[in-house]
User: Fold this.
Amino acid sequence: MARLEMRVEDFAPYFEYKDGQLIRTVDCKHKNKGKIAGSPDRKGYLKVTHKTKGYFVHRIIYLLHHGYCPEFVDHIDNDKTNNRIENLREADISTNHYNCKLYAGNTSGAKGVHKLKRQDGYQGVISYAGKRKYLGTFPTFELADEFVSLARDMLHGKYANHGRVA
Assistant:
């Protein structure tokens, strides 16, 4: 997996991690020592400006804890503001996609299941290794959802996200 060019020595003198928060350790322009760093961007991720450049808080926290920053840092519980180190894990583009929530425009109520328009039944699909895989046609929604969920568990492993609220 690719690593970003973020170095611990560029951030460690200015920030520390405490209980899922990034805390400033030095005073700087309008930002006080001891204060929580970061504010939400338009997508809900916490961002901080450091040396005139914007960084995601979860990436800095991962970097400070592990000594490197991977290309993708995944929020296990899908809460973009939960930056506890236990909730952050290394991912790649595929595994990060596996852990996505149910799409807001989904009409069936289940990831990877949709009603067939020209015939009775439901179709199951899953993404794996950057490809869309068709799993078949099923007579009921429940059967399609169960099959897709089992396939997701098998193929996506610990990154499997069924789009349901726990």
Q: What stands out?
A: The mean pLDDT is 90. Strands lie at 15-18, 21-24, 39-40, 46-50, 53-56, 72-75, 88-91, 113-115, 122-128, 131-138.
